[in-house]
Amino acid sequence: MSADTTGDVLAGDGVWSEESEWELTDFAGDPEVADHVPMPTVAVVGRPNVGKSTLVNRILGRREAVVEDVPGVTRDRVSYEASWAGRRFLVQDTGGWEPDAKGLQQSVARQAELAMHSADAILFVVDAVVGATATDEAAVKVLRRAKTPVILVANKVDDQRLEADAAALWSLGLGEPRMVSASHGRGTGDLLDDVLEVLPETPREGGGGLGPRRVALVGKPNVGKSSLLNKLTGDERSVVHDIAGTTVDPVDSLVELGGKVWRFVDTAGLRRKVANASGTEFYASLRTRSALEASEVAVMLIDASQPITEQDLRVIGMVADSGRALVLAFNKWDLVDEDRRLQLEREVERELMRVPWAQRVNVSAQTGRAVQKLVPAMETALESWDKRIPTGRLNTWLKEVVAATPPPMRGGRLPRVLFATQAGTRPPTFVLFTTGFLEAGYRRFLERRLREEFGFAGSPLRISVRVREKRARK
Questions:
Q1: Cis peptide before 427 (omega within 30 of 0)
Q2: What sign does the dihedral 308-309-310-311 (CA atoms) show?
Q3: CA neighbours within 13 Å on the CB side: how many for 1?
Q4: 314-329 pLDDT, tens per residue?
Q5: pLDDT of residue 255
């Protein structure tokens, strides 16, 4: 290949060569790339039953967080994507915080404290009708140690008559209480304006990395998800029955494996098509999808004793589309004989071509065989999911690959791959700047070579191409 077609893949620190007269533009505003740019987090904290989840739903503009009149419904930290005035950020709903909680509530309080320390801004919600309690005052002491911007929210101020009571919350020492009614929406717009003033553009280093990694157990009905969760926890955490579809609600369990605490979510078995489900099955399917979106790695259970089905492939496709790390757990391995193993290998090679990068473990939830091998597989997948390649190293590799194997010609012209950058992680997302369109086959070739060079076992990769028109000379 001649110098005029292969040269100038790179030119200095992000600036194109003089021949191309291009500059690396700010691609963060690109909608597709922006989807993978890390967002700052706002944690909503407070004692039980002050209206935190109601406020979260009001901020989101939709009903996502579960709300009931019974205190203690929310137990885990759950993050949702929100936007206001063109700014995108994560809203983290937390369980009620209590200083002297025991048992399960102690774990709930611990999760709330982790949210306080890892968030970029905190909304501390107080019931204005009840006023400041001893629990609220104890929470304020914890908040001051967090060294994170805190906005005091006086909730349940439904009308002007309650504003005088809310003003008494100045005594907490967190500044002016923002008076809102989460149920009616009163004052929430002004509150969000205040949030944007204290919220950084990007999350601080290390934010959101605390707490157990979230694992979603997914698969078709009756494949053994609940049995596996019970084996991992050593307890009858999930109801198990031979009837398919026993699990309806996602079931969360903290499990200590390999010296680490993991949060496993047992989900309902996904039907062939959501449109075919009705009533409880339909909503169970929606909640399963939400649990998958809230997870970091999915453990996809497949019945190894039976042929891989269309339902298995649909669930795998959904996990791949969600961008989550993936571990394939072939369950009921104790029922697999030598002939079935050979047949399964052929099925995997033929049917699972879309996810050849997924980690694979053969387990038996019934006997406990090899369930501990899930830990290194999940750790490898999450490490790949979080991996970031330095721009210099990425482009040095890219120059060598393109020089050895140039992209196919289109319309009699050879497109040049000029520059690459990793736009984000979770999953790793790469943007290639080129002089022309790259065929899908060539993008798959680059993905394969990326994996050979840098790993990424267990994680999907996303590669976007940005064609830049050459600037006209003045």
A1: yes
A2: negative
A3: 18
A4: 889 889 988 999 999 9
A5: 82
- Where do we find the tokens 């193993």? 341
Q: What is the pLDDT of residues 130-169, one digit of tens each?
A: 999 998 998 888 888 777 899 999 999 998 888 888 889 9
Global model pTM greater than 0.85: no
Quote the CA–CA distance of 257 and 261 in Å, as a whole number: 6
Instruction: Provide the residue type at 279 as one letter.
Output: G
d(CA 365, CA 331): 7
Give DSSP secondary structure letters for 307-339.
---HHHHHHHHHHHHHT-EEEEEEE-GGG--HH
β-pairing, 297-303 with 359-362? unpaired
Amino acid identity at 379 = E
Q: Is 349 helix (H, G, I), strand (E, B) or coil?
A: helix
* Tokens encoding 91: 């809203």
Which carries the bigger pLDDT value, residue 319 or residue 289?
Answer: 319
Tell me if residue 401 falls in helix, strand or coil.
helix
- Sheet bearing 462-467, strands edge to edge: 417-424, 429-434, 462-467
* Structure letter (DSSP) for residue 305: T
**Phi, psi of 356, deg, nearest 5:** -65, -15
